[in-house]
Every structure is written in structure tokens, then in C-alpha cells.
Amino acid sequence: MNVRIAGILICAAVLGALLPQPAAAHRLDEYLQATRISVERNRMDLAIDLTPGVDVAQKVMALIDSNRDGKISDSEGTEYAKSVLSSMSLKLDNRRRLLTLTGSRFPSFLDMSHGEGVIRLQATAAIPATSSGPHELEFVNTHQLDMGVYLINAMVPADKQVRITDQHRDTLQHEFKMDYRVVEAPRGWAVSWLLLGGLGLATMLWRKEALRKARQASPVVFGLLLASMGAALSSSTFEAARAQSTPTAIDDREFWRMVTEMSETGGTFPRQYMSNEDSAQFVIPDLKRVTRPGGVYMGVGLEQNFTYIAAVQPRLAFIVDIRRDNMMEHLLYKALFELSTDRADFLSRLLSRKRPAGLNSNSSARALLDAFQPLAADAALYDDNLRMAIDRLTNVHKLPLTEIDKADMTRILNVFRTTDPNTLRGQGDNTNPTYLQLMTATDLEGRSQSFLASEQNFKVVQDLEQKNLIIPLVGDFAGNKAIVNVGIYLKEHRASVNVFYVSNVERYLFDQGDDAKKFYMNVGALPLDGSSTFIRSVTSDISVRLGIPIPDSTAKWRSFLVPINDSLKAFAAGQLQSYRDLFAAPAPTR
After folding, report:
1. DSSP structure class, residue 475
2. d(CA 161, CA 236)
3. What is d(CA 344, CA 355) in angstroms, rounded to the nearest whole number?
């Protein structure tokens, strides 16, 4: 058997046995109910995952186990599944549609009692073939309202003639409305889509067979199949179809929905206006080698994310941080990126200092920052930039910022105005690197890799900001909403996380009860691939205190790359009991 596939299968088996399924990371006293709705012209399909927390598991078991024998018979499972569906209402164009159970799978009572058992139901509603034009879907889930917590999402339609135009949810997410439109099939594409569908099916079947037989099927035959089908498709047709898996841009309403509905209540952590990690760029050469452009990036914190985003060039990025201030600063950054013509213009707006003469697209980050360093802040320029930034967000993007949000942005921009680039530092002691030092830092090979190192790096971030593809969320790594929602969204869009920058957050999670366990449960629910990589950071003082071996360096921090699947495997095997264990099993790189 191929060693790599054997490893994947072993890892999958271990994780499958020891890790909860995607919806498992939630509060103990809640019954999490996640519904995914797929719409086609002549049917609607529902995938429903129900996960009772530990404190309500016995109540849910009693609802299922009618004869109290401690087991779930087929008939008991079917009756409970039907009772769930009877608590749900599905309407199309204001006409109620009957939901029919098509499948169910129940966990053991033992798994449910541990809060790790997921009840999976599938249902469908047959509908008359919908005509071209607009349609409205309404869905309500009232199952166990006293303990239910709800998530509802619409899947990206597999039918290319069905296009979702709008979605609305109530605060509790047990009521959902979706507008969609059925369009005429574009002429000239039928053959291409048919061939593409055959190609996708062949790929799927081959993958399944390869996993089942450990690649004993002939790759030569499959290669000929790919070649024959690929010849019938232009490369542009195939790329256009593939690109639909994740959005190429997100409209303003959907962007704000994601920012607000996917976020959690903010927590407390020391206020921060910039990073203090002077080792961030050390891992970038290796990061570029082990990951691929066009994936999904996740991160925490502030502008250091822009440097990693410029390096890996993702299609979509999520920044998850427990501080609401962090979200506000990212929204402010978004406005400044969009308003700026180039790096020098961006720094002028951020620092409230007039643009120095002589700067151009070839200026280095050092030349840029050195040119701004002696300049005094300009109060009038600050007022103009703040006004334009808030106007950009509220009037152009139509984001309903509150007065508190605007006050937070005012305070943040004022910090950059009143503190020059060579004195502004990240939270901590006064030996932390300054903004100037971080932006002009290099990797271990002496190359500047920050998002301000080149116009090319800057444009990567700017382009994503302009398309609403950097989503800042308020979220607890050990919480039950933000990371879970990101995972659901990415699965719906057939995308996977290939980089997750976690900084040193795991240190705090291991110090807070079972928060580390909850975090790895959340990560285990994310769609991942073989290239998925954690970026971890540790301070030199903590490394000494905990006995974490790091290379000798004058840097205050050290960053490491670790395959996410290796970490999940180590967690499942019980090898991650403390923060120190992260740097011993498996051995990190760099």
C-alpha cells in the first residue's frame, strides 16, 4: 500500500474515532441543529445534523428510546426522524412542501452522552419544475425550542440554472428565507457542462476507488480518460467552472451578513494596534513551498495577516479574533486599502502624514518608512482620511456601523497619527519591535516579505479587500460559532483551509480548562487537505520558561510551520496535553 495513503487512512480512522464531527464543539446545555439546504429546479434536499450537548443528551435520548432499552432500533430512529421533520416547515413561493425522510444515521448513546454524537438526517421535498424567474424559499425549524441552537445555510446550487440572490435569517437562525432565480441555460455550453460533469464524476469515482483499493486501479486508464475529456473542454471553461467553488467576489450585503452572523460575542484580551512578532517572515519561504496559491487562509490578529496573505495568495481569507477591536481595525484597514492608489498613498492615509516626494512603485519598504519617519502628523489630513474611510464603509459598502464602531475606528486611526512608525509598538514591553522594524524586517535569507515590501505584495491584499474577500470575525478559538461557521461555509463552497495562522493563542487555550480540546475539535471540523498548515509562534522568554527548544536568535519570537493533520493526529493520540507538547509532537519546522 502507498505509504502516504496508508498514513492518511490511519489518521482518518483515528480522528474518526476520537474527534467529534463538525457540529460537536458547542455549549453543554444546547442541542445544536445545523441544516443545509440544496435547491434544484425540481427538488429540495435537506441535510440535518443534530448534536446534543452533554447536559441535554439524556433528554434527547429519552425522546428517541421509546421503549427505554438503551438502544436505538430502526423503528425508533425512523419515528424520531419523522418527529424532527414534523417540527420543520418548508415553503416554496408561499406554498408548503412535504418533507420526506430519505436517510438517517444515529450515533451510540455513549457518544451522545459525551457530547460527541451527531444525528444525521436527510430529507427531500419534491416540487414541480420551477419556471424561469424569481422564487422564494422559506424554512422554519422549531424542533426542541427550549434547548435548540440553530444554524441554517444554503448550499451552492449544483444546478447552474439556479442562482441564489438573497438570504435572510432571524437572530436565532431557526427561520430562514432565501430568494433565488431560475435562468435559461446559456446556449453553447450544454456539451461543455455535460463533459465537465462526466469528468467530475470520473474523478470522484476514481478517488473513491483509489482510497478503497489504495490506488490499485490503473492510473494509466484514468489518465487516458482525463485526456480524452479534457480535449473536449477549453481550459477557460474548466477554470471558470472550478472557480465557482469559492466566490471571486462577495457582495456588500453578504459580506456584512458573514461578518455579523458568523461572529461570536467579543471577549477580553489586552488592546493591540499592531503585531509584535518579529519572526513572522522567517517561515515565508517554506510556507510558499508547502502550500499552494488559491486556497483559503485563516488567521488571528492584525497586519501580520496581510504579510502572510501576500505570501500565500489565497482566494479567500478569514481573520478570527476574540477582540471586537480587532474586527474594527480590519474594517478600517479595508477602507484604507480601497482608498489608496499604492503603498505610499496607503501609508499617508494610515499615518496621517503627507506623502513625501520621490516615492514610486520601485521604492523599498525601508525607503517608504524612512521617508515618512521625520514627518509630523497633519491634523487636517487625519480628519479627511477618517471621514473618507468611514464614508467608504457606510455609504459605498452600506455597512451599518454603529456610533460605537465609528468611535473605535477614530481611536485606532488616532493612535497611528499620534505615534510615529519608529515608536509605535505591539502590546508588551518597550523592547518589542516597532511598526517600522516589522515592515522592514526580512526572512532568514535576508529577503523582505512584508505586505509593504513591494507593490505586488500590496496589490494582492488590496485586490482581496476590494472584493470583500478578507472577512474579519469576532470569534473564540474554543467557541461554538465562528470557526464552526467558517467550516460550514467552506464545505458548502467546496473549499479547504490550507493555512491557519494561530500565533501563540494555543498557549492561552491550554491554560483555560478544556479550551484546547474544543479548539482542536473546531479545527477537526474544518475542510482540510494535505497541504493544510498551522503557523505557530512562541516568545523566547516562554520558550525558556517551558523548556521549548528554539534556534538561537536575537529575535524575540520564533515562528514554526506544522501540518494541521499531524497536530490533529497527535491530539487524537493524546500527545498534546500542554502548550509545550505542540513543539515536541510532531517536530515543527523552522
Report:
1. -
2. 19
3. 7
DSSP 326-386: HHHHHHHHHHHHHH-SSHHHHHHHHHT-PPPTT--TT--HHHHHHHHTTPPP-HHHHHHHH
| Same-domain check for residues 216 and 266 | no
Q: Does residue 137 sit in the same domain as residue 214? A: no
Contacts of 350 (CB under 8 A, 6+ apart): 336, 413, 416
Q: How many CA atoms lie within 13 A of 562 on its CB side?
A: 24
Give me the residue label for grid cell 441564489. Answer: 164
Confidence (pLDDT) at 382: 97
- Tell whether 344 and 418 lie within a shared domain: yes
Question: Is there a domain that residue 56 lies in?
Answer: yes
Number of domains in the chain: 3
| CB 340, CB 451: distance < 8 Å | no
Same domain, residue pair 197 and 341: no
Host H or E run for residue 124: strand 119-126
Whether the predicted model's global pTM rises above the 0.70 cut: no
For 518-555, the pLDDT digits (tens) are 999 999 989 998 899 999 998 888 888 888 877 777 78
Matching residue, cell 475606528: 409
Question: Is 427 found in the same domain as 304?
Answer: yes
Could you say which residues of the chain have pLDDT below 50? 1-26, 187-244
- Residue 199: which H helix or E strand, with range? helix 190-213
What distance in Å separates the CA atoms of residue 497 and residue 526, rounded to the nearest whole number?
7
> Half-sphere exposure (CA, 13 Å, Cβ side) for 298?
29
Does 275 lie in the same domain as 131? Answer: no
Closest CA to 504 of 304, 226, 210: 304
Look up residue 584 and give its three cell numbers. 515536541
pLDDT of residue 112: 83
Is residue 374 in some structural domain?
A: yes
Domain contains 13: no
Residues in the chain: 590
Nine-digit cell at 331? 474594517
- The parent domain of residue 557 ranges over 252-583
- End-of-domain residue from the set 134, 149, 182: 182
Q: CA angle, corner 338, sides to 336 and 343, nearest 5?
A: 65
Q: Are 388 and 348 members of one domain? A: yes
Residues 435 and 526 in one domain: yes
Q: Which long-range contacts (CB under 8 A, 24 or more apart) does 201-209 make?
A: 202/226, 202/229
Q: Is residue 101 part of a domain?
A: yes
